[in-house]
UniProtKB/TrEMBL annotation:
UniProt keyword Phosphoprotein, yes or no: no
Location within or outside the cell: Nucleus
Highest taxon above the source species: Eukaryota
Record InterPro entries: ThiF/MoeB/HesA, ThiF_NAD_FAD-bd, Ubiquitin-activating_enz, UBQ/SUMO-activ_enz_E1-like
Similarity field: Belongs to the ubiquitin-activating E1 family.
UniProt lineage: Eukaryota, Filasterea, Capsaspora
Any single biological process term in GO: protein sumoylation
One Pfam family it belongs to: ThiF
Signal peptide (from-to): none
Organism name: Capsaspora owczarzaki (strain ATCC 30864)
Name by which UniProt lists this protein: Ubiquitin-like 1-activating enzyme E1A
Primary site of residence: nucleus
Length: 334
């Protein structure tokens, strides 16, 4: 249920309300978010959505801080090494997140592992956000979210590159539609020519609907030279490189770009050259702050669009390829 706004809240969120409307801001203000994975990407997402004014965020991470975490996780310092990521130090992280929003978005810290949670745990949230989770966990949590009609987003950063995938189920949203450029104003319906010109620039709020695919279905697409280009447009090589990476995780094998790996993953060599895959594997390492900031900005934007019901969401994959500095929005489905 949308919450009532105080005068102080209306003043604080004035720019946002002008941008996407009071109703969208109210829906955002009632959103309960789970964020699992406090990596550099995770804290970028947390910072951005808390700034926007959600109702609550639960930070879930049972990992211990390592040197690699310090490359992009700006809420951690050397004093955090060896301590739990979500607890290190717990009160300082909560205060830093809360200072982003004067109205005290509720911040809950959960130090358990994501894999230990029962399916029913996810039913208390409006949207579940995973960061840095292994493939099997992403699939199982996505399936659990579908069981309870909870929206789902997952993403990771691998050195120079990153991705996000989202499953918003059956999603309704509002988008402002501007009069078509070639559609002339009808002066006869207005008192003056200026009013006609003003009317030509008017926007109307229109309702739209998007259907999303679960991750398990997106990964079950049978790729071949004949259908690859038709099933994913545009067809960035990074998506297929991710499929190869996840295949190495399934088989528990080393990161080596080979024809056998492509064959086992069902990836045609025509869409994923071995030299590109080799370069991608070599670039995988600790998160880099600039990449986390870029992917985190898009990730947070999609979270806010999902909970506010305002503007068209990405359906269903975003990829950032650090080798060429480009971002790609594409759809992967059966």
């Amino acid at each position: 249920m949308a919450v009532a706004f105080t005068d102080d809240e209306a003043q604080l969120y004035d720019r946002q309300i002008r941008l996407w409307g009071l109703d969208a801001q109210k829906r955002m203000r009632s959103a309960r978010v789970l964020l699992a994975g406090l990596t550099g990407l995770g804290v970028e997402v947390a910072k951005n959505i808390v700034l926007a004014g959600i109702k609550s965020i639960t930070l879930l991470d049972g990992a211990v801080t390592t040197d690699a975490d310090l490359t992009a996780q700006f809420y951690l310092g050397v004093e955090s090494l060896g301590l739990n990521v979500s607890h290190s130090p717990k009160t300082r992280r909560q205060k830093r997140l809360l200072v982003h929003n004067a109205f005290m978005v509720a911040v809950v810290v959960d130090e358990e592992n994501l894999e230990s949670k029962q399916d029913s745990f996810f039913s208390q949230f409006d949207i579940v956000c995973l960061v840095g989770a292994p493939l099997n966990t992403m699939i199982s949590v996505n399936d659990a979210c579908r069981k309870y009609c909870v929206k789902f987003i997952a993403g990771s950063v691998y050195g120079l590159s990153g991705f996000l995938f989202q499953d918003l189920l059956e999603h309704d949203y509002v988008e402002d539609v501007v009069r078509a450029p070639g559609e002339p104003p009808q002066v006869g319906k207005h008192e003056t020519a200026q009013q006609a010109l003003d009317a030509a620039n008017e926007t109307t709020a229109s309702q739209f609907h998007s259907s999303f695919t679960p991750l398990s279905a997106a990964l079950s697409v049978a790729w071949s030279d004949a259908i690859a280009a038709k099933r994913i447009k545009p067809a960035p090589k990074l998506w297929f490189a991710l499929l190869a990476l996840w295949q190495t995780q399934r088989q528990n094998i080393e990161l080596q770009a080979t024809s056998d790996l492509l064959a086992s993953a069902g990836i045609p060599s025509s869409v994923l050259p071995l030299d590109y895959l080799s370069a991608f594997f070599q670039s995988i390492g600790p998160e880099m702050s600039p990449v986390s900031a870029i992917v985190g900005g898009v990730y947070a934007q999609e979270v806010l669009k999902a909970v506010s019901g305002k503007d068209a969401p990405l359906n269903n994959v975003f990829l950032f390829d650090g080798t060429d500095g480009a971002g790609y929005a594409t759809r992967v489905s059966l």
